[in-house]
């Protein structure tokens, strides 16, 4: 008997957006501890194009071994279609959202760009009732990243990025600078810092100023006109949502005892200067956490947090969505729809 099929976006080789193929693929079945989700929308994130590109930005020893064909993506919102016999926390018909098997699924085991996807029940949160599937699908990876960096790490796994455990810092009454504040992680980090009582300086380009003010930024610095690191001093925390080697330029903006949180810390060599300045540099690897997504749902429901949508594409047009991402200056998130 032939297995059921579904539409999915798969890779048969690494490359640019053109290697994303919309085609038939086997419909998955939930294993013990898993649920099957009828996907309504998929959020696009940087690891999607890292996988598509063969993780060339990672050191060779970090590059996972990928077996083709592979379905891209980690973030979904949808409706539970079926559950394994041992799952008691969710039932068919429940609306859910999730970042699936991350970082365990880096080699393509998350499989979100599809009409159906299985997920460990522990990765899945109950979708906020007050937002639609597009907004919910846009949230998981970006929101969990901001949450685990700023609010609650939520796990005891070893930190692959540094020898010590990442620890969020006090935000109430502090000044926080968010670089890349209009992007996926940045615009949510801004809102979480405001929620926790911080004064927030947002760094972005001209076109994002009105949005960032609307999201609560106390000050917006247009990096096309002035370098934030040349004019800002005495902040307590820098969240660099752009990251990379250039994060070190923000060390001089920090007060002694402050902290720099680079969301993407690879290539950053700042330990000596940080020690000299008396500041902490810390990062962490975001991890799937359904309990945290369920907890955060209330903040999305009541409007405390808002997920900004840059653009929406049908699943069949995943290539166009990746081309949009490659152009940069994305405001919030890009989403695919599967229903």
TrEMBL record:
GO molecular function: oxidoreductase activity
CDD domains given in the database record: MDR_like_2 (cd05289)
Sequence intervals crossing the membrane: none
InterPro entries, per database record: ADH-like_N, ER, GroES-like_sf, Lipid_raft_assoc_Zn_ADH, NAD(P)-bd_dom_sf
Enoyl reductase (ER) domain ranges (all copies): 15-336
Pfam families (alphabetical): ADH_N, ADH_zinc_N_2
Top-level taxonomic group: Bacteria
Identification of the protein by name: NADPH:quinone reductase
